[in-house]
Amino acid sequence: MIRLYICLLIIVHTTCFAETDTLSVTLENVKYPYPVNFIKLQSEGTDLRMAYMDIKPANPNGKSVMLFHGKNFAGYYWTDVIRGLSSNGYRVIVPDQIGFGKSSKPLIHYSFHLLSRFNKQLLDTLGIQRISILGHSMGGMLATRFALMYPERTEKLLLENPIGLEDYKTFVPYVSTEEQYKTELKASAESIQRYYQNSYFPEWKPEYDYLVQIGAGPTKSADFPRYAKVAAMTFTMIYEQPVVHELKNLKVPTILFIGLEDKTIVGKGLLSREEQAKHGQYKVLGRETAKRIPGSKLIEFEGVGHIPHVQIPEEFIKALLSSLKK
């Protein structure tokens, strides 16, 4: 197979990766913006490898930030944020959660509690005692759980268009993991592109194409059934393990970064148009959530969808740096 290497210029950085007819389910043929390391873990008698990038700044300020990716992504989409933080003295830790990206894809019981413990183990291994955590989308739910479990390790909680600001199981019809698995198996490059274009950005631009190419790459892999099974299991995790009812218990400084055009609902396709219109309205959810979290701060972005750090990287990083310094 001939591999074509493409470099996509995205605002202020260049991300290079191998475009192939097929990507492995652990993305071996996707080049990340910084060197990738692995930590060995274990769960349910299964040996695991958790991938992560550890970017040390040239002029350290003594502080660290950990980035938690969303469900349909991994560490590769944080390039602008890493560079913005690193150039301002922050050490940046970027894990691919177990079940995602370059990390192992085990068939285990997935929980935000377990993933939080894995991330604590990573910090313990790196000798980092306190850290600010930026969580996007599903990563926002995970970051919230981490902060609830380990407030003494969490300097600041930074939530970028987190999902889970509603309790989905109260209005989205239940589907079993097996039923969701059958849905995941139907994924294709076309369906993924359509979903990304309709769900993540108010207006699609060519510089977003790499997200689709990487997201769709594993669908033709021989190991795709395992990949789809894990995707179904993590869908169930999100559905069955809400954090919204515990937001009031957060005891760490919290900042919400909300793109106001976001209308994300986990399980949106299971709802009627009338029900869809009642939920996932981040221009409302952001403000409601800020009221639930004691002492939190809300930063809103007009005309921005689900991924502010990709759609408006310069504006997002400026807001992020300002929030970290206060």
UniProtKB/TrEMBL annotation:
Domain of life: Bacteria
Keyword Hydrolase applies: yes
Cleaved signal peptide residues: 1-18
Coiled coil: none
Gene Ontology MF terms: hydrolase activity
InterPro entries: AB_hydrolase_1 (IPR000073), AB_hydrolase_fold (IPR029058), AB_hydrolase_sf (IPR050266), Epox_hydrolase-like (IPR000639)
Keyword line: Hydrolase, Signal
Residue ranges occupied by any AB hydrolase-1 domain in the UniProt entry: 64-168
PANTHER family per the UniProt record, alphabetical: HYDROLASE, PUTATIVE (AFU_ORTHOLOGUE AFUA_2G14860)-RELATED (PTHR43798:SF33), MONOACYLGLYCEROL LIPASE (PTHR43798)
Protein name listed in UniProt: Alpha/beta fold hydrolase
Species, as recorded: Paradesertivirga mongoliensis
